[in-house]
Amino acid sequence: MKKCRVPLIALLELVLIVGTITALIVRAYRYDQNKRVQANELLRRSTAKATRELAAKHNSASASVRSIQAGLTQTDCVRAGVFQYDISHYGHFYNPYINLYFLSVDEKGGDPSPALLRSLQSSHFVLKGGSQCDVMRSEVFDKRTKENGLFFDVNSIGFLSTTKAKVEGRVGKGFMAGLGLEYIVERIDGTWKVTRCNEMVVY
User: Is 171 within 8 Å of 157 (Cβ atoms)?
Assistant: First the structure.
């Protein structure tokens, strides 16, 4: 009986092939690991950048609110917090093309104090006292220019504590086209902000 012998050269070729395959597998594994590390690092950097940008925006917004309320009476600070909330939440709700807003601080259409009105002015809209507008059934007009606008009223303020107030107000584009609102306004980090708003009446 003859024994089957594998030639030495064939054996060496087999070992070489196995070694090559192993090296390729190891290289592919390391490449995959490096890619994962790079992806994780990119994700970490992106998350950190987004966090910094968000913090910067928050700080900027907080600084803006603080600067608006600086130098105002406590009652006007509460009114400022409500007016800012109304403009940002309801300004474009009624008509996104209107950028003229009339503010009043009682049911008779009394104008805000000059300091409050001046502090709220922005390049994005024009603010005027409520006495400068005519409120019709479903429209609000500037008495002088006849330009169409919206009204924002803060009717009453009741302080529940030194850091919390209950406020009633109205927003709309006419005396038969608006909302009656009830707010909870709180002093947070030195500024008065709306923390809750209930739509009481739709008319």
Answer: no
Give the integer Cα–Cα distance in Å for 152 and 81. 12
Task: Please write the tens of the pLDDT for every residue from 175-199.
Answer: 778 889 999 999 998 899 999 999 8
User: What is the C-alpha to C-alpha distance for residues 94 and 50, in angstroms, rounded to an integer?
Assistant: 33
| 197 CB-near residues (< 8 Å, 6+ apart) | 85, 89, 181, 182, 183, 184
Structure tokens at 181: 């609102």
- C-alpha R_g of the chain: 33
* Dihedral sign computed on CA atoms, order 59, 198, 162, 128: positive
Is residue 38 predicted with pLDDT exceeding 80?
A: no
Q: Which of 148, 13, 157, 2 is nearest to 77 (CA)?
A: 157
**CB of 116 within 8 A of CB of 72?**
yes
> Which residues, at least 6 apart from 74, have a Cβ–Cβ distance to it below 8 Å?
none
**Domain-wise residue ranges, the chain:** 7-69, 73-202
Burial class of residue 86 in the structure, from the number of CB atoms within 10 Å of its CB (0-12 exposed, 13-18 middle, 19+ buried):
buried
